[in-house]
C-alpha cells in the first residue's frame, strides 16, 4: 500500500478509535458466540484474497471462539479526550517517570547513541514515548492489559460498525506478520485496539516502519527494546522529524484577547516575538525563521505554547494535543530541563506522587477504592474521591487535592 494511502488510513482509524463511543450489535451471548465463529470462518476467504495462506489463518485463530468483552469495555473511554490536561500530564510526567527515564538514558546509552545516529531522532523523545505507551515495558507484563491481537481485532470487526473497516485492515496486516515470520501466533499480543509491543504499533504501521536494530533478522518490538525504539524513531523520521529541533516553546502571551484571536495561527517565531510573545525565561527563540502554531491547552489562563513542526510529527503517533504535549514535556524533563514556568488553572493544590499513593491507600482503607495503588488518578480514583466527598457533604469535584488529603488524614 502506498505510504500516503496508509497514512490516511491510520489518521482515520485513530480518529475513530479515539473519538467515538461504541455501537454494538444487540445480540444474546450464545447467538453472539455462534455469530462470531461464523464471522471468523467467513473472513478466511477475505484474508486469502489479500494474500494470507489458509494454514496461517487457521493457526492464528486456533482456539479463538468468543469475542473479547474487555475490548468492548476499553473502547468506551479514551483519556486523551476525557481528562483535563493537567490530570493527563500528572499521570504521565511525574517524579517516577522522569527518574526512570533518566536511569534508562544511562543504561541504554550505547543503543540510544546508535539509534540517534541512524534516525536523527532525539533519544529523550523515544524514551518519553516508551514511557507513555507501556510505562517502559511494564504494561507488557500485565495480563489484564495484554490481549490476543487477532481476537481483539476480530471483536472490533464483528461488533463495532464504526471500527470494522479499521479492524479488518489491521487484522490482515497482523496475519501477514505471522506469515512473513515477524512473530508467532502466540506472540501476536497487544492492546484492545491491536497496538503492539513496547511502543505500541498497529500492524499496518509496524509493517511500514519496522526496524531491526539488534541485527537478529527480525524487528521484534515485543521483547527487543532497541528494535522497538528504532521502529519508533523510523516512524518519526519518515513523518518529517526535524533532527536537532525542539517540539515547541512555553511562552508568555501579551494579552488574553490577542491569544484568543491568534489561537492556532501559524507564523515564524520572529513574527510571534514581534507581536509580544516571549519565553518565560527571557531567552530568545534560537531559530527565529522556524514556523510555529499558538496552542493554549487550557485556554489563556494556563501555560501557552508555540508548537513547531516536531510537535505535529508527534501527533502522527497519537493525534491528540495532550499526548504530544506530554511526550515533549517528559522528554525535556528526562533531558534535565525544568517544569513549566506557568501553572495550570486547577483551582486546587496538586499532590506529589508519594501523596497520591497515600490518597489511594486511605481511600482503599475506607472501602471506597479497589484499584491499583499506583499514584495515577484515573476514573476509579476519581469515583472513590467523589464517593468520599458525597459522604461528607463536600463538592463532588473528584480532584486529588492537598486539601482533600489533609481531610482524609484528620478523620
Structure commentary:
- The chain has 411 residues and is mostly helical.
- It has helices spanning 3-19, 29-49, 54-60, 69-74, 79-82, 85-90, 95-107, 109-119, 123-134, 149-159, 164-179, 203-209, 225-238, 256-262, 269-274, 309-314, 321-334, 353-365, 379-391, 402-410, and strands at 147-148, 189-190, 248-251, 266-268, 291-295, 304-307.
- A 4-stranded antiparallel β-sheet has the order 3-6-5-4.
- Helix 8 (109-119) runs parallel beside helix 13, helix 12 packs across helix 13 (225-238) and helix 18 packs across helix 20 (402-410).
- The chain is globular, with a radius of gyration of 23 Å.
Strand order of the largest sheet: 3-6-5-4
What Rg is obtained from the alpha carbons, in whole angstroms? Answer: 23 Å
Order of helices and strands: HHHHHHHHHEHHEHHEHEHEEHHHHH
Biggest sheet, open or closed, and with what strands and sense?
A: 4 strands, antiparallel
Q: Helix proportion of residues, in percent?
A: 40-55%
Count all strands and give the number: 6
Amino acid at each position: 500500500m502506498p505510504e500516503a494511502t496508509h497514512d490516511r488510513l491510520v489518521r482515520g482509524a485513530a480518529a475513530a478509535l479515539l473519538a467515538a463511543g461504541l455501537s454494538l450489535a444487540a445480540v444474546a451471548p450464545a447467538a453472539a458466540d455462534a455469530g462470531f465463529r461464523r464471522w471468523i470462518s467467513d473472513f478466511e476467504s477475505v484474508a486469502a484474497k489479500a494474500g494470507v495462506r489458509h494454514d496461517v489463518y487457521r493457526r492464528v485463530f486456533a482456539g479463538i471462539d468468543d469475542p473479547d468483552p474487555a475490548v468492548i469495555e476499553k473502547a468506551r473511554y479514551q483519556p486523551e479526550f476525557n481528562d483535563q490536561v493537567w490530570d493527563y500530564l500528572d499521570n504521565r510526567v511525574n517524579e517516577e517517570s522522569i527518574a526512570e527515564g533518566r536511569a534508562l538514558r544511562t543504561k541504554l546509552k550505547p543503543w540510544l547513541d546508535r539509534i540517534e545516529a541512524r534516525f536523527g531522532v532525539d533519544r529523550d523523545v523515544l524514551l518519553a514515548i516508551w514511557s507513555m505507551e507501556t510505562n517502559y515495558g511494564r504494561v507488557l507484563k500485565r495480563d489484564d492489559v495484554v490481549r490476543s491481537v487477532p481476537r481483539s481485532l476480530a471483536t472490533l470487526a464483528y461488533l463495532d460498525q464504526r471500527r470494522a473497516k479499521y479492524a479488518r485492515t489491521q487484522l490482515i496486516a497482523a496475519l501477514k506478520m505471522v506469515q512473513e515470520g515477524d512473530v508467532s501466533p502466540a506472540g501476536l499480543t497487544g492492546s484492545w485496539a491491536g497496538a503492539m509491543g513496547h511502543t505500541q504499533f498497529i500492524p499496518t504501521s509496524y509493517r511500514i516502519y519496522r526496524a531491526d536494530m539488534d541485527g537478529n533478522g527480525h524487528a521484534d518490538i515485543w521483547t527487543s527494546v532497541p528494535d522497538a525504539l528504532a521502529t519508533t524513531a523510523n516512524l518519526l523520521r519518515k513523518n518529517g522529524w526535524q533532527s536537532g529541533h525542539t517540539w515547541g516553546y512555553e511562552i508568555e502571551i501579551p494579552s488574553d484577547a490577542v491569544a484568543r484571536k491568534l489561537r492556532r495561527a501559524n507564523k515564524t517565531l520572529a513574527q510571534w516575538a514581534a507581536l509580544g510573545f516571549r519565553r518565560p525565561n527571557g531567552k530568545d527563540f534560537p531559530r527565529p525563521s522556524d514556523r510555529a502554531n499558538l496552542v493554549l491547552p487550557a485556554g489563556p489562563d494556563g501555560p501557552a505554547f508555540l508548537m513547531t513542526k516536531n510537535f505535529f510529527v508527534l501527533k502522527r503517533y497519537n493525534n491528540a494535543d495532550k499526548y504530544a504535549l506530554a511526550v515533549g514535556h517528559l522528554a525535556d524533563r528526562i533531558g534535565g530541563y525544568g517544569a513549566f514556568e506557568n501553572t495550570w488553572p486547577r483551582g486546587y493544590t496538586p499532590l506529589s506522587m508519594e501523596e497520591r499513593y497515600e490518597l489511594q491507600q486511605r481511600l482503599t482503607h475506607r472501602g471506597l477504592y479497589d484499584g491499583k495503588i499506583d499514584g495515577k488518578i484515573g476514573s476509579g480514583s476519581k469515583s472513590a474521591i467523589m464517593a468520599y466527598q458525597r459522604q461528607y457533604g463536600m463538592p463532588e469535584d473528584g480532584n486529588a487535592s492537598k486539601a482533600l488529603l489533609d481531610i482524609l488524614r484528620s478523620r
